[in-house]
Request: fold
Amino acid sequence: MIILRKSTSQGGKGPQPHPSSAPLPSRRQTLLRLWRYIRQYRWQVTAALLLSLGSNLLALLGPVLSGRAIDALSGGVGKVNFPVVYVNILLMLSFFAISSLLNYLLSRLMIHLSQGVTYQLRKDAFNHMLQLPLDFFDRHQAGDIVSCLQYDIDTVNASLSTDLLQLITSLITVLGSLAMMLYLSPLLLLVFAVTVPAAILLTRYITHKVRPLFRARSVKLGQLNGYVEELITGQKTIQVYDRQQQMLAQFEVKNQDAVNAYYKAEYYGSITGPCVNFINNLSLALVSVFGAVLYLWGQLSLGKLSAFVLYSRKFSGPINEAANIFSELQSSLAAADRVFRLLDQKAEPADAPGALTLEKATGLIKLDHVSFSYVTGQPVIHDLSIQVRPGQTLAIVGPTGAGKTTLVNLLMRFYDPQAGFISLDGHDIRQLTRRSLRRSFSMVLQNTWLFQGSIFDNLAYGNAEVTLADVQRAAQAVHLDEFIQKLPGAYAMVLDDNASNLSQGQKQLLTIARAMLLDAPVLILDEATSNVDTQTEQLIYQAMEKLMSGRTSIVIAHRLSTIERADQIIVIQDGQIIEQGKHRELLAQGGFYARLYQSQFR
Amino acid sequence: MKLIRVYLRPFYKRMAGGLLIKIIGTVCDLFLPWLLAFTIDSIIPLQQIRPIFLCGLLMLLSAAVAVSGNILANRLASAVARDFTQKLRHDLLAKLLCLSARQVDDLGASSLESRLTSDTYNLHELIGRMQRLGVRAPILLVGGIIITLTLDPQLTLVMVSVLPIITCVVILISRHSIPQFRELQRSVDNLVRVIRENISGARVIKALSKTTYEQNRFDQANRETVNQETRASATMAVTSPIMDFSLNIGLTLVILIGAFRVNRGATQPGVIIAFLSYFTIILNAMISVTRMFVMFTRGSASAERIAQVLNCPADLQTLPLSAGGARSAETPPLICFNQVDFAYPGQKALLEQLSFSLEEGQTLGIIGPTGSGKSTLIKLLLRLYDVSHGQILLDGQDLRSLDRSALRQNFGVVFQNDFIMSDTIKANLLFARTIPDEQLQQAAQIAQAGDFIDTLPNKANYQLAANGSNLSGGQRQRILLARALAGQPRILVLDDATSALDYETDARFRQALGRQTKPQSKIIVAQRVSSLLQADQIMVMEEGRIVGLGSHEMLLKTCPSYRQICQIQLGDDNIA
Reply:
């Protein structure tokens, strides 16, 4: 499962194990998008340029000053001009101090910049992730997504904070040296007309070759993360089935893949430095040979030749460095690619233009000839029509896989039906803002979801208006108050990663309390009390009747005692209603419902 | 750091080989400028073309040696880093899979995940770069100092006198920044946790329209990470300017003292000029060393975190306990709980004075309110936790005296919300075991999964999404049931594992389970009375205690809570 895959917008529910490899985005595109993040720091970038220019110039002045000091002492024994030495030494010290200070400021600036970009990139990626349709999360392993948001962005960050600065410094040195060499001997500079293009071509060739390898590396690491995530989730089960050795062996395959992808990228990536160095050495040899020849022909003085050589060495150092940085940039570009791929995933379609904001729904729900399938050709809901009046309780029963949860998915607009329409208070739900639509429902699922935070935070869930008294009242309604009061810290107790200090049923009760506090006009319970004991369940429903009086509720449950009192029970099979009525009526009908009811005594 | 040493030890030979090649390459690299100087100083004055070209050829040769040596050395270094990381990650996962439930609770799943991923990446990077870049700088540093020593030992000492200052600075900074990097990793853990929570809770977050809240929550974690990183990097950013400045002070000192020495006739101006050029080399080497130091500091925070996991003491060890129980003469019961107490550390007791036994081939049903300790009992039986008091016996042997894998081979288990791999259905049923196809099919039939699997495209080779999210809740549970049954375990343990099945499917499953030819003991936790009706014994739990134990008929008479449950679920008329 790879984020790099192009989004398949039709939203197939099935995973696609073999991602089609999308074409590589061009390097320019990636750089351009990255630049958009850096652009808002363009003043800092300018400042950084100036700072590094300043500190480099000061560093260049150092040798001049030390040269003067040495001139002052080259008189020999007893003839050293101490005042001049002192003055120059003092100057040197102050210059070096300033240069160091500038360097420090420069790195602080770059840290600020790269952290700013990292923060923004991560924020954008995360916020975009929240906008993605549900099927994105079905198709991608959590670990892979985490790897993109954390590791990949970190890679970009690392290269921004160090590589960018290096590149700038190198550029300044290269330009300076080039100017000096041009001044000394334009003829000899011709040597570089051969070797510099050679270096550039070589670097280009290698980066071209290496880039897909770095991409593969990011992908493999993402897969490894995905697998690790899975193994950690299933750790208990793996232990109980005593499959540690086997899982380790399977992990080893992924591990090997990841380190090999890493190695391959480095195998080619790490040749850049030595190769460019080789070309530099080549130019050095050429310079010395041709320089010597020029000197013999009387075209060049010896002093100029040695100065030229000095500058050419100054010149080749940064080029070498730059080449190394380029190969590192490849890894961060590959990482940035993955982040941008995530950002390119299609978000949930925007609200219809002029979409209505439903303030307070009464809870009149209508499904009109609705048909839906996740995968074309495999209908899940077929020509279904239901009406729920405000204040009514509708129960949905049916064999597993009949489409009950899908119905909820459609109501909440996680998916849109292919035919027919659904309305809330007479408005087609596609004409409502998603936010106001979803605010009209409070939904509780079988799979509980709690986050790390206090019990209070989990129940209030971001609603500042909810007081401790409100939270306590909700907890009392689900009969958890007494239990929570006995916990260390009571409502302030922090639920940890797996909330392993709570039983599954208690977690379900917490999520029901959370839903109650939401105070939405329609309540949807999808197997919300499946792990709760019957007595507690009865008490909850009684409390809910009081709390939620006049509200519409939709209840999906397998335990029939849960739904006996519903105003309307519909039995769904293969996406169609096969029976409809109240509990007694349906039992009397002697159909599917009655058979289901009887089967608990078998 | 000990961790890195231990894991690098097997590669010392290879690293030494790579180092040697790298040194040869570097020396050739350094030989070049010397040759160049030689050409200018000694060959050119000869006024002959031939020796010049000869020198050029020699330079070319050493350049060729340098390039091939460096490439080879780099590749060797990458290979070492690869093998190092692979081994480390392997051992880390092996350890992680063996951690006890309590240890996992303590460390936190997100933190474990990032230790196994981003921390190992950090070390991978560190080992690779250290080898690639860590050779040239020390050679230049040491070489430079040695050459200056031959020029003028006293001046060299003056220059080197700043080195202790630098060392002090480095030590001070690292003492300051290693904890900061540790903090950073912790906030990264937190960041990862929020991301994970948002992925697993995507549906709920959308449903409750809490996107803004989650954005803020993430923003906090994100901001904290960025702040921590800024803090740690800012500390490290001090290193390089201070080092530069100290070395430059050394240089000015050299000129100052040199001036006095020249004045006294103790040294020549030319020596000081030579000093200046070597100084540049030493300075550059020092800069590289600083950069490696930064990398090392960061890496050591990761190494520490990995070591913390690897050094976790083995929990739940096998103890040499003698067989307990008075019935050792007769056949002991299959499972016997003997006055078992259990509490999570620092919390009130979850189970108290639990005693019961189960004979081979029998079925035990467990029912009771939420939080009454049903799942905890199962976890104790599987020895995911150890009892606080009392003992649990399997075949008359204390669980703690049994080899854990031998113990668990007796069981086939389905937990509440058990996990499903993103792999094919068949792979999930096999779960890395070797089980013949018919046996798998048989298990799928009993679990009532056979029919729906046949309707899927690719049937048993249907690819499941992460957590089986492309199946309905009931389908997921049936896959899990089939997985537990496929091993034909001696004891089947189901913790509320049929809650998402409709009554009819549930009934068919129970009947198929009863028809199995091989006798099987079963422990079934359920909220539905109908799932437990046929059990030989039903145990009613409340607040960690047993309030009723017996057959359905008996409990109806003796246990008021049980009677109430039945009345609600089955209706008054249907209670016999």
Remarks:
- The radius of gyration of chain A is 35 Å.
- Residues 69 and 87 of chain A are 8 Å apart (CA to CA).
